[in-house]
Amino acid sequence: MHPMLNIAVKAARRAGTIINRASNNLDVLRVERKNHNDFVSEVDRAAEQAITEVLLDAYPNHAILGEEGGAQGDSEYQWIIDPLDGTTNFLHSFPQYAVSIALSHNGTITQGVIYDPVHNDLFTASRGAGAFLNDRRIRVSKRIQLADSLIGTGFPYSDFAHLETYMSMFKDLLQRTAGLRRPGSAALDLAYVACGRFDGFWELGLKPWDMAAGVLMVQEAGGLVSDVEGNEHFLETGHVVAGTPRVFGQLLQALQPHLTDSLRY
Asked: Which GO biological-process labels does this protein carry (predicted)?
């Protein structure tokens, strides 16, 4: 395992310990509302602080981009952190949330960790070295037809600017696929594409920390990722499409008729 990935795993597991401990005392957690349907708890902040401490202890000159703490430092290396992707699920004891940590080197994602503390599932990826689930090599599924595919997605939850567009996409794809699922954690959704549990995924309006690690995971597992126009601006736009090599193209094509100018880069 790459030394930087190893440090990220250590950080993710430390955050997972904090999250698991807090899951037993949800009724006493302090929770704030950042926006409509967008919550942050003291667990999010504690987990991010723990991750940041582990990373900066090993690499004190690296920069940090965290969901809760924002951007810190200036370096060619930047850690992109979501300490608890799926906070709403966590607050309702719905067991679908994860820690997501990625490393960007000069703008390229090179390392990624997604840790599911509920099931103790550790997804890891290093650029050029493949993707793994609990040390077992993973690949995207072999499905080739959108009609046979299980597709993950994420509903708009805070910013509803693209709600009507999204709903038209959802209605269309509901009739073109074997099924749509919205578990509520984009990081895990992308990890599920990487290991073949989903055959594809799309979502609008994500943040870099929601998808950075997951995007690398899919790519290293043999899948394809783009923005909704088929380009590589997903980290800038927040709009992402991912899937197996064959399903990806069909999913992207199905989304094209619904695109509005506001979704274009």
From this structure: inositol metabolic process; phosphatidylinositol phosphate biosynthetic process; signal transduction
